[in-house]
Amino acid sequence: MSIIASSKIISLDEAIILLNADYKPVIFWDSCSLLDIMRLPMPTRKQPIDRLTKIMQIKQAIVNGDILSLASKLSIKEFNDHINDIDSDLYFEARRISREYNAFVAFINTVNPSVTLPLVDLTSHKVELGLMDIIASIVDETYFIDEDSRFAGPASHKTINKTPPAHKKGEYKDCYIWTTATLARSLSDRRRIFYGFISSNVKDYANPKSVNLVPDLATEAATASLDYCANIDVMYGALKKVGVI
Questions:
Q1: For 96-130, what is each residue's pLDDT tens digit?
Q2: Which of 69, 92, 102, 179 is at a distance of 20 to 30 A from 33, taking alpha carbons?
């Protein structure tokens, strides 16, 4: 399975210049939001098919240059550390579903000899390759902001004091990625029509049973003029509202 290798790494200062050069909408991805594209067909997640069509439209807008795509350099390692496991999980799910379907078909064919339904092998369709192509198209157009002491200080403070998004799992990387997104936004021109941070780790960012940020993060997001998107549907709706898709 492909991994993020030849990425566009830029400094915070270069990111600010990039943000100020063009006022197109921005998506800032965290690690799980990119990995979740590969997880879309997983039966346990019960994702509607329109989420795939939405991410495909967003991907095309990024490729066309209508959306600026950003992420933290820290996301590269996390993506690479998990993508092969998700790829394997998707393969085994396709194999499991094929076996269950074929077992049921065997009963139908036996009970009614006049009907001969073909067996299937869903693994042969290699849905994981198609999904990885979508991710690769996004990654190829994504600028990954390099590590910087201006991110590390606030991220360490959040981690040590267990403030959101470290209030539950206490993960430094979540604080670092969030700080990268908010600080890059804060230091750039505020006239941009949309700057969205997408993470499906809702428990780390939002109130229970809600897609609204917890108060501490809501204040930071408001200060930075940043929108939090808990899933593709929210992101798609925001992008559609500003007319980019």
A1: 999 999 999 999 999 998 989 999 999 999 999 99
A2: 92
